[in-house]
Design goal:
The chain is an alpha+beta fold. The protein has one domain: FAD/NAD(P)-binding domain. The relative contact order is 0.17. Helix 2 runs parallel beside helix 6 and helix 2 packs parallel to helix 10.
């Protein structure tokens, strides 16, 4: 009998097998753990590389709802010092007159906070290391995935077999778990690339995020905290046509900085480009299904969207809140962690919300991408209308905060 117990201990079967330990996958593991669910988290990346020192401008806008999630799973104290509140968002059509300002009343709080991705990862990784319900397997390659009647498993390159009740695909846009499950994506290519880097600038940003629309694509400036030498900093997300991207990336630094400055019209004073410039092809992707037998997809594995509204990560965190709530509910009823009815609840809950957010973002991108004076005049008229209509403005601000729709408990204040 003792021998059998040894085998059980060795197999360490957990509730969840989370494939992908990025921001969404690791938040899921923590949120699940705080609700008493155990997980294996497998990721190919080296955590040391992901959290290395250096300012590269890669940052995420964390909505009010997402901040509630981080607070509810105990990350707020570790993150608080690194977040830069977004007090207002300025939306403009190529810096022409008629800009739209989203600025909440003081008692309503900020529109969200900007965090360097590095700080989000550090806080998540530290919390995960201290959590006994999370078995973290970094720098691991998966050679085989298996979903069966009674459980799921993943075999790692070193021969380790990890077992669980439910497999979660959280590897991002190119999710091999989704591909292997034969879940198809509705997708189209914007033929654009997002260039991301960090800027330091002479004028303070005043906690304003800028969304400047040009026919070639949106140009966003996102406020970050000053560095330890007191330099003002922002993250830049500049969308360029795919055919121009290689040329822009190959520019000498001074020329690149001059191109950026030209599009900023001096709103932040003199600028310096800090750190490397990374680039990502822009695609719209949405799965027809979010679940399969003993399988759920979260984050970019389920939906990849244009970064224009900075909602990609927030959408993934809503997936996390919804999935955990459904799983906890199932556990309370004594159901299997991969009960098909509970998974269907998750799918139904998330499908509509994510499609709505993504559809709105996609429409916005197309609307502002129409060149010419007449479309520009129509857009500015529309922006003026929103500017003068408080209920409409409040709706947009609530959308940005992520507090609309049927919110999971973990994302409520």
């Amino acid at each position: 009998m003792a021998h059998d117990l040894g085998v059980i201990a060795m197999s360490d079967k957990r509730d969840l097998l989370i494939l992908g330990g990025g921001l969404v996958g690791m938040t899921l593991a923590l949120a699940a753990a705080r609700s008493g669910l155990s997980s294996h988290v497998v990721d190919r990346a080296d955590p040391a590389e992901l959290t290395a020192e250096g300012f590269d401008g890669r940052a995420s806008a964390i909505s009010t709802a997402s901040w509630n999630l981080f607070t509810n799973i105990g990350l707020a104290d570790a993150l608080e010092p690194f977040g830069c509140p977004i007090a207002s968002i300025a939306v403009t059509d190529g810096m022409k007159p008629g800009r739209l300002d989203f600025r909440p009343e003081p008692h309503e709080g900020s529109l969200g906070r900007m965090f360097p991705n590095r700080q989000l990862r550090l806080a998540l990784f530290e919390a995960a290391k201290a959590e006994p319900l999370i078995a973290w397997h970094p720098m691991a390659d998966i050679v085989e995935r298996h979903r069966g009647e009674h459980g799921v498993s993943a075999t790692l390159a070193d021969g380790t077999v990890l077992e669980a009740g439910l497999m979660v695909g959280a590897e991002g846009r190119m999710s091999p778990t989704r591909e292997e499950a034969g879940i198809t994506m509705a997708q189209w290519d914007y033929s654009h690339r997002a260039l991301i880097t960090g800027l330091s600038h002479s004028k303070p940003h005043g906690n304003t995020a800028w969304e400047i629309f040009y026919p070639a694509g949106p140009f966003a400036l996102l406020p970050l905290l000053d560095d330890d030498q007191g330099r003002h900093r922002s993250a830049l997300v500049w969308t360029v046509a795919e055919k121009d991207a290689a040329g822009v990336l190959a520019m000498p630094r001074t020329m690149f900085a001059a191109e950026v400055a030209e599009r900023m019209h001096g709103v932040l004073g003199d600028i310096t480009v800090e750190g490397p410039v990374s680039s990502y092809p822009l695609k719209f992707q949405h799965t027809v299904k979010l679940t399969g037998q003993r399988l759920a997809l979260v984050g970019d594995a389920a939906h990849g969207m244009h970064p224009i509204a900075g909602q990609g990560l927030n959408l993934g965190l809503r997936d996390v809140g919804s999935l955990v709530e459904v799983l906890v509910e199932g556990a309370r009823l004594g159901l299997d962690v991969a009960d098909p009815q509970m998974l269907k609840r998750y799918e139904d809950w998330r499908a509509l919300d994510s499609l709505m957010v993504m559809g709105a973002t996609d429409s916005l991108t197309r609307l502002f991408g129409i060149p010419g004076r007449l479309p520009s005049a129509i857009r500015r008229f529309g922006m003026g209308l929103v500017q003068r209509t408080p209920p409409l403005k409040r709706w947009f601000m609530d959308e940005a905060r992520g507090v609309t729709g049927d919110l999971p408990e973990l994302l409520k204040g």
